[in-house]
Amino acid sequence: MKLTLILTGHYSSCATIEKIWSEECSKHHIELDVVISETENGQNLAKQLNLKSFPALISGSKVIAVGRPDKHEAEKIIADLLKS
Predict the structure, then answer these.
(1) What percent of the chain has pLDDT over 70?
(2) Which class would CATH give 2-83?
(3) Where along the chain do its domains lie?
(4) What is the pLDDT of residues 72-84, one digit of tens each?
(5) By CB atoms within 10 Å of each CB, which of 7, 35, 68, 70 scores lowest?
(6) Whole-angstrom Cα distance, residue 40 to residue 17?
(7) What's the pTM value of the predicted model, to 2 decimals?
């Protein structure tokens, strides 16, 4: 399984969010691709998925989560994803 995390930039809050998702994905052997919304790839993906809010966690073409989860919320989101 591969997930994509779209962040708004290289800010300290984005680094924290990336760390939370990276650790949770790593625990479950999920590949995480991080994309910055300001890049061409990030802009294309955001447009394709009609994203207006960031950060966003994506699986395939489905938005799984938007916003800044804490560690426990991220664990629950990943657990629910793995059950489906």
Answers:
(1) 100
(2) alpha beta
(3) 2-83
(4) 999 999 999 999 8
(5) 70
(6) 21
(7) 0.92
How far is the C-alpha of 74 from the C-alpha of 64, rounded, in Å? 11
b/e burial code for range 15-50 (CB count within 10 A of at least 16 → b): eebbebbeebbeeeebebebbbbeeeebeebbeeee
DSSP-assigned letters across all residues of 46-65: HHHTT--SSSEEEETTEEEE
Place of tokens 């680094």: 15
pLDDT at res. 34: 96
Render pLDDT for 56-67 as a digit per residue (tens, 0 to 9).
999 989 999 999
- Provide the phi-psi class of 35: left if phi over 0, else alpha when psi is between -120 and 50, else beta: beta
CB atoms near residue 65 (< 10 Å): 21
What residues does 57 pair with on adjacent strands?
Answer: 5, 65
Strand partners, 32: 3
